[in-house]
Write a structure and sequence with these properties.
- The chain is α+β, with helices and mostly antiparallel strands.
- The chain is built from five helices and twelve strands.
Amino acid sequence: MSASQPTIASGHPLDNPARASLTGPHAHFAERRGRVLRYPTDVAPWLALPDTPDADDWADAAALAGPGASLTLTALREPPPGDWEITFHAEGVQLVDAGLAAAPDPEAVRLGPADVPEMLALVERTRPGPFLPRTVELGTYLGIRREGALVAMAGERLHPTGYSEISGVCTDESARGQGFAGRLVLAVAHEIRERGDIPFLHASATNTNAIRLYESLGFRLRRRTSFLSAVVPQQLPVSGRTGGTGGGQVAALH
């Protein structure tokens, strides 16, 4: 992976992908307070702030989540206010399709709500990143089974206009070394391209094995980013924009 940082045009959908998703193809999932949006807590953990949040935005984020709640943020240009407890922070990379040999996989099966218990169990064993009871609603999920058991999967998460994120890529320890992850990534990428969108994904900057795999498949580095989880203060700040913690309304956009 090149150490140089690619130049990024201002306002690109992938610069703030959670917000671009919740104001675009995933608007039907969005819950809103002021200028802050989020997914339902059983769908995805992501909170979407404006590109340059002000004190009122942070107050609205706190009120939307509630005192003591944990929020997951990405693509932040500045940290939360000092009274928020940061519980997790990691550097990451954002990779985008630069010539994937995307194709259907003959063994891949489509996964849906009935498969969620198995998907959650696989995620618990492999820890690929956030996957919740309704995450499967965000897009296509494909899996590979062995003797009836789900041993590998990959699917879609964030969906900025024109793009779709490949996520939930995981393989059970019993089935590793057989190329399932790469095959499923290419199969999901095929589904994304068939809709006319461009596949992209995120990975931890320290997960060099995954980055090498994704680059070998045809992804390239677009930008470096960060992932952060923080706990809302018990004493909620007051937002002047929405009339304080009691005056603003939480609105579902669907």
